[in-house]
Write a structure and sequence with these properties.
Bound molecules: fe (ii) ion
Largest sheet: 3 strands, antiparallel
CATH topology of the largest domain: Hypothetical protein af1432
Helix content: 40-55%
CATH architecture of the largest domain: Orthogonal Bundle
CATH class of the largest domain: Mainly Alpha
Shape: globular
Number of helices: 14
Order of helices and strands: EEEEHEHHHHHHHHHHHHH
Radius of gyration: 20 Å
Strand order of the largest sheet: 1-4-3
Length: 328
C-alpha cells in the first residue's frame, strides 16, 4: 500500500465508531502515518469491517481520516442509514440505537467545522446520544424520524438539538432529565413537516402565498398531533414541538405566544431553530452564515425577538467557544 500525500486541510478525522458494521464503506478511508502522509485502508464500496482490519486491531486505532471532499457524502450516508433502518423490522432494537447514534455522530462531526470547544460539544453529543437511545425502541417515533430524512430535515433537527443543548449549558442547566427533554423536543420538533407537501418545505417563505403560509405554519400543531399517537412522551417535549416557531414578542406561530406563556425549553429551541436555519447549509439555505453573522442577523435585522436570556447564552457560547470563527 503506497503512502499518499494530503495536507491537513484536505483531510477530516472521524471516529472509527461512526462506520456502521456490515455496510459498504461510504467513502475511502485512510490512516495517518505521518503529517501529510496517509495510507488507504478501505475503499468506497468495500464490505470489510474497519474494526476487523489487522492494521486497525494491531495499532488500537480509534480514529481514521477521510478526504474533506468526501465528508458531505459521508455525513449524508449516515443519515440515510438511520432512515432506512429505523422502520425496518429486520433489525433489532440495539441496531436501531446504533444507527441513530451513527447519524448523530456524523452531524456532530460536521458541527466541529464551526470550531466549538471539545468539552462543550462532547457534552451535547453525550446527551443527544442518550436521547436517541431512549427514542430508538419506540417504533412509531423511529418511523417518524425516517420521514424526517426527506429534504435534510433530520440533519437540521440533530443540529438544532445540539445547539439547544449548548445554549442550555451556557444557561447553567444541569438536570439530565431537563437536558434530555430539551434534546428530544428539538429532535422531534419538525415531525409535522411529514404532512406538508415537499415542494412547500423547499419554497422560500417570501415566495409563498397566503394559503401556502397557512398550510406550512400548521406543522407545529400537526407534529403535536402525530406525537400524541406515539405513546407516552413528556409534556415538555410536546410543548417544544408545538412552540418551536413561537418567539418572545408574540410574532411567532402558530399561537403567537409571548415569552411569559412559552414553555422554558421551547424558548431555547425556538432560538436554536432560527439560528440553525441561518448557519446550516440546506435546500432552503444555500449561503449559510457564520455563527457570528447569524447572531448579528437575529439581533440587528430581526430585532432579537427571542428570549433574552437564551440569546445572551447563545452570544456567550459563540464568544467563548467559537472564537476562531470570524465574521465575514
Ligand atoms: Fe419547524
Amino acid at each position: 500500500m503506497a503512502l499518499e500525500n494530503y495536507s491537513v486541510d484536505e483531510m477530516v478525522e472521524v471516529s472509527i465508531k461512526e462506520f456502521v458494521s456490515g455496510l459498504a464503506m461510504p467513502v475511502d478511508v485512510y490512516l495517518q502515518m505521518a503529517p501529510d502522509k496517509y495510507i488507504l485502508i478501505a475503499q468506497k464500496g468495500d464490505q470489510s469491517q474497519l474494526q476487523g482490519l489487522t492494521v486497525v486491531k494491531s495499532n488500537s486505532v480509534k480514529t481514521v481520516f477521510i478526504r474533506r471532499d468526501d465528508f458531505k457524502s459521508f455525513s449524508e450516508s449516515a443519515v440515510n442509514i438511520v432512515a432506512a433502518v429505523a422502520g425496518s423490522d429486520k433489525f433489532q432494537m440495539s441496531h436501531k440505537a446504533k444507527f441513530l447514534k451513527a447519524a448523530t455522530n456524523a452531524v456532530f462531526t460536521e458541527l466541529h467545522q464551526f470550531g466549538p470547544k471539545a468539552a462543550t460539544i462532547d457534552m451535547a453529543k453525550s446527551v443527544a446520544n442518550s436521547t436517541l437511545q431512549m427514542i430508538a425502541p419506540n417504533t412509531t417515533i423511529t418511523n417518524i424520524l425516517k420521514s424526517l430524512q426527506q429534504e435534510h430535515i433530520l440533519n437540521q433537527s440533530i443540529a438544532v438539538s445540539a445547539f439547544s443543548l449548548m445554549i442550555a449549558n451556557k444557561l447553567g442547566w444541569q438536570s439530565s432529565v431537563t437536558l434530555e427533554k430539551l434534546s428530544m423536543g428539538a429532535l422531534l420538533a419538525e415531525v409535522g413537516l411529514k404532512e406538508i407537501p415537499p415542494e412547500l418545505i423547499l419554497k422560500p417563505r417570501s415566495e409563498m402565498d397566503h394559503d401556502e403560509i397557512r398550510i406550512y405554519e400548521e406543522h407545529p400543531y400537526r407534529g403535536l398531533k402525530l406525537l400524541e399517537t406515539a405513546g407516552t412522551l413528556p409534556d415538555d417535549v410536546k410543548s417544544v414541538v408545538y412552540e418551536h416557531h413561537e418567539n418572545a414578542i408574540g410574532f411567532g406561530y402558530p399561537r403567537k405566544l409571548r415569552d411569559i406563556r412559552m414553555n422554558p425549553l421551547a424558548k431555547v429551541v425556538a432560538l436554536s431553530t432560527q439560528f440553525c436555519e441561518l448557519i446550516i447549509p440546506g435546500p432552503w439555505q444555500p449561503s449559510p452564515m457564520t455563527p457570528i453573522d447569524a447572531a448579528t442577523y437575529i439581533k440587528d435585522i430581526m430585532g432579537q425577538p427571542y428570549n433574552k436570556e437564551a440569546f445572551k447564552a447563545l452570544c456567550k457560547l459563540i464568544e467563548e467557544d467559537f472564537k476562531n470563527i470570524q465574521a465575514s
